[in-house]
C-alpha cells in the first residue's frame, strides 16, 4: 500500500461531560467517514451510549476513578456533580485518567492524539510518543479569540460593568466582567491549547468569520481547523450524551399538531442548574407570554421530581401550572432529545444558555435564539449570535457564575423573559429578519460539510497534513 494512502490512526480523548463528548465524537465520526482509524477513549457510561450513537467508532474503555477521589462509585459524568467540592474532585479524577490512558497509548501508539484541553497531561503524553496533538476546547473560535483579548488586558478586571472587548476584529460590548477565577482557568486552558499542533473547532468558517480566524492565527501563530458542525453528523433521532426521560414519539406527537414556528424550546444544557426562584420566574414568563413551549428542567442532585411534595413543587412551579398549561406546554424533567425537537418545524425559538453545542444545533436547524448566558464562553457565544450574526435576541443576563459558587444573586424577572420571548416569537419586522438570517445561516452550515464546502475542505487538508507528518517521522 502506498504510504500516503495508509489511514491515520487517531486516538480521541473527550472530557466527560455531554457538552464535550457529543461534539468531539461527532468530529471523530467525520475522520472515520474519511476512512481513518479512530479510537475514542472513554469510560463505561459513555461507552454504552456511544456504541449505539456512533457505531463507526472503535472504543477503548477505562474505569473512571471516582472512588479514588471520594466521589460515589458510578459518578462518571460531570453533569452529575453540582457543587464546588464535587466539581473539584471530578476534575482531580479526570487528571488520574492519565495513567491508564498513557498505558494504552504506549501499547497502541497512534499517529495523532485529539484531546480535550481539560486534559492538560495530554501534551506530555503526545510529546513522549513524539506525535502531534490536536486540541479541542468545545467553543467557537470567536469566543476563544475574545477571551484571549480579555485575558491580555488585566486592567479590565479591576473595574465592573460593561466593557468593549479590546483589540478584537468586531466591536462587541460585554454586559459585565468575567470573574477573575474563570479568566485564570481560561488562561490555563489557552496555554495548553497553544502548545498543540492545532486547534479543532466545532463550527464552520462562515459562522466564526474569516476576519476572526485570521485574527486568531495572526495573534497566536497557531492554526485553527474548522471541521463542524458536528451535530450534522449522524441521525437527528439518535440518543446522545445521556438517556432521555421522554421518548421521541411523545415529543413528535406533542409537536406535530402545532403550527410552524409557534413553539419556544427552553433548555439550559447539562450543567446549569437554576435555583427554584429563577425557575418560578421562567414558568411565569412562559405562561404570561401565551406561547406554546417545551421546557427542559434538568435533574439535580437532591431534587427528585417524581417524589416531590406539592409544597416542594410550588417553590419552583406556580400552583396549578401543569394543569393550566397541559395543551400549551410540555415540561421535561430530565434529558430530552434536543436535536429532534429543534429540527421540528413547529419550533420557532430557543431560549438557551448559549452553550456552544446548543447554539450550533440551533444554527444548523435554522431556529433563532433567545440568549441567556450563565458562565464561561456562553457570554461570548451570545455576542456572536446576537450582535455579530443577528440570529437572536438577548434576554439581558449580566451575571457570570462558576459552577458550585453559591446561588446566583440576580434574578432575571418574568417580565424581562416575557418581553424577549414576544420580541422573537411575535412575528414583527425584527423577528422576521432574524428568522431569515437564521435560515440562510442554516443553509451555509449544511453546505460547509458537503464536498467542496469549507469544513469538508479543511478536513481534507488536515488529514493530508497529519499524513505528511507521520510519513516524515517514519522516514527519519
Ligand atoms: N442536550 C440534550 N438533551 C437535553 C439537554 C442537553 O440532548 O435535555 C444536549 C444538547 O443537544 C447539547 C449538549 O447536550 O448537545 C449540551 O451542550 P451545550 O454545549 O449546549 O451545554 P453544556 O451542557 O455543556 O452547558
UniProtKB/TrEMBL annotation:
Entry EC number(s): 2.4.1.-
A molecular-function term among this protein's GO annotations: UDP-glucosyltransferase activity
InterPro entries: UDP_glucos_trans, UDP_glycos_trans_CS
Record-linked PROSITE patterns: UDPGT
Alphabetized UniProt keyword annotations: Glycosyltransferase, Transferase
CDD domains in alphabetical order: GT1_Gtf-like (cd03784)
Domain of life: Eukaryota
Entry keyword annotation includes Magnesium: no
Signal peptide start-end: none
Family under the similarity heading: Belongs to the UDP-glycosyltransferase family.
Protein name, as recorded: Glycosyltransferase
